[in-house]
Design goal:
The complex is a heterodimer of chains A (90) and B (152). With 90 residues, chain A is mainly alpha-helical. Chain A has a domain at 48-90. In chain A, 57% of the residues lie in helices and 0% in strands. Chain B is globular and about 55 Å long. Chain B has a domain at 40-130. Helices cover 70% and strands 0% of the residues of chain B. Chain B is mainly alpha-helical and 152 residues long. Classes of the chains: A mainly alpha (90), B mainly alpha (152). Chains A and B meet through helix 2 and helix 3 of A and helix 3, helix 4 and helix 5 of B.
């Protein structure tokens, strides 16, 4: 097998969608952390740890947009509000 | 040197790297605490997850640092948007985030922070392993009494 000769059997075993679902799940966890009722007082300055969590949330938001745009494409009656977001892989 | 030789050399380097990590693993039992005696499946699963995260970070420091930097950069980009900015402020004031930070620091020993050459293991990782290997077997009970509670 080479990079230009991918095997379909391997593609069927790909966990790519599982990766995306896992990332989206982690992004939900970050949202839940942000909505925690217990607030620290005073709030600390956002550091690398907070920005890494934000990075996960951003990836989750992107995955959500991809999933929603795919759903909209499968339903032609629905208006796609995020047509441009489907072009980022091109 | 032909491509086959290069790939063979890479495979051999990877094998040597794996053997070196195995050796470090044996020499630093303090980084690999015994699993808890518990029948609670949930607790056991959480502990396994945390140990796995520590193994992943300490065993692949350059890759972990790369992922860390990528997430931080993506987070800073997201924070420049209105929605990202709101989420950043909410996270910065969340007590749950503070708790998670403590867990992460305990798991990773903060080896992903600090200086690092591009595409290389962070300096803090080398320092940690050097301390762990050199300090193995060292009786520091006197120093331990001098160390304030809560300090590593």
């Amino acid at each position: 097998m080479t990079l230009t000769d991918a095997r379909e059997a391997l593609a069927e075993q790909s966990h790519f969608i599982d990766y995306l679902v896992g990332l989206a799940g982690l992004a939900r966890v970050v949202d839940a952390l942000a909505n925690d009722d217990h607030r620290s007082d005073p709030a600390g300055a956002p550091d690398d740890f907070v920005h890494a969590l934000l990075g996960l949330a951003a990836l989750g938001a992107t995955i959500d947009r991809i999933a929603n745009s795919t759903t909209a494409q499968q339903n032609p009656t629905a208006k796609s509000a995020s047509t441009q977001t489907t072009r980022w892989l091109r | 040197m032909n491509p086959e030789s290069l790939i063979g050399m890479l495979a051999e380097l990877e094998r040597i790297r794996g053997l070196t990590l195995d050796l470090i693993d044996r020499e630093t039992p303090q980084l690999r605490p015994a699993p808890p005696d518990t029948t609670d499946g949930t607790e056991r699963a959480v502990v396994d997850l945390l140990f796995g995260a520590r193994r992943a970070v300490l065993g692949n420091p350059a890759a972990a640092r790369g992922l860390h930097d990528l997430l931080v950069a993506e987070g800073r980009r997201y924070a420049a948007t209105p929605r990202g900015s709101r989420l950043r402020d909410a996270l910065a004031g969340s007590e749950a985030v503070e708790n998670l930070r403590r867990v992460w620091e305990m798991v990773s020993f903060n080896v992903l922070d600090g200086p690092a050459a591009p595409n290389a293991a962070p300096d803090a990782w080398a320092d940690l392993l050097a301390d762990a290997v050199i300090g193995h077997g060292l009786d520091d009970s006197i120093l331990a009494r001098l160390r304030p509670e809560g300090f590593a």
